[in-house]
Amino acid sequence: MSDVMQLVNVTDAWTLVAIVGLGLITLVTRSFFLLSSSDWKLPVWIQRGLHYAPIAALAAVIVPEVVMHNGHIISSWQDARLFAAAAGATWFFTKGGVLGTIVCGMLVYLPLHVGLGW
């Protein structure tokens, strides 16, 4: 039993070291911009690239959720997420608005998922 407790104590110590280390790294890297005495100017090409960052991050999160199930690409067209994503995209590109997109997607998703078990 003492071997298990010793292992737990070592694991807890390494966890604490990792948390403190990551916190310090985050603090140092984020404070570079605040500690500088001169203004920072990003190059134009970086400023242009930052315009695409939110949509790229959103696509990186949403697309795998829509096309994968349990870590595998879905193999059947009978998946409610496909139809909900198509309905939401159609709403967004025809009418616009995020709230309408979400409501439209959920109105398609819920009957297919709950009603048909897709």
What's the structural blueprint in terms of helices and strands?
Elements: H1 2-35, H2 44-50, H3 53-67, E1 68-69, E2 72-73, H4 80-94, H5 98-115
Helix pairs in contact: 4-5
* Rg: 23 Å
Distance between the termini: 48 Å
Proportion of strand residues = under 5%
Task: Give helix % range.
Answer: over 70%
Please state the average pLDDT score. Answer: 87
* Poorly predicted sequence stretches spanning 5 or more consecutive residues: none
What is the 3D shape? flat
Enumerate the strands of the largest sheet in spatial order, edge to edge or round the barrel.
Answer: 1-2
Overall domain count? 2
The structural class is mainly alpha
Key traits:
5 helices; mainly alpha; 2 strands; flat; 118 residues; 2 domains; single chain
Could you write a compact summary of the structure shown?
The chain is mostly helical and 118 residues long. Helix content is 75%, strand content 3%. Strands 1-2 form a two-stranded antiparallel ribbon.
Structure description:
This protein is mostly helical. The protein has two domains: 1-40; 44-115, no CATH class. The protein has five helices and two strands; from the N terminus they run αααββαα. It has a two-stranded antiparallel ribbon with strand order 1-2. Helix 4 (80-94) packs antiparallel against helix 5. The protein is flat, with a radius of gyration of 23 Å. It starts with a helix and ends with a helix. The mean pLDDT is 87.
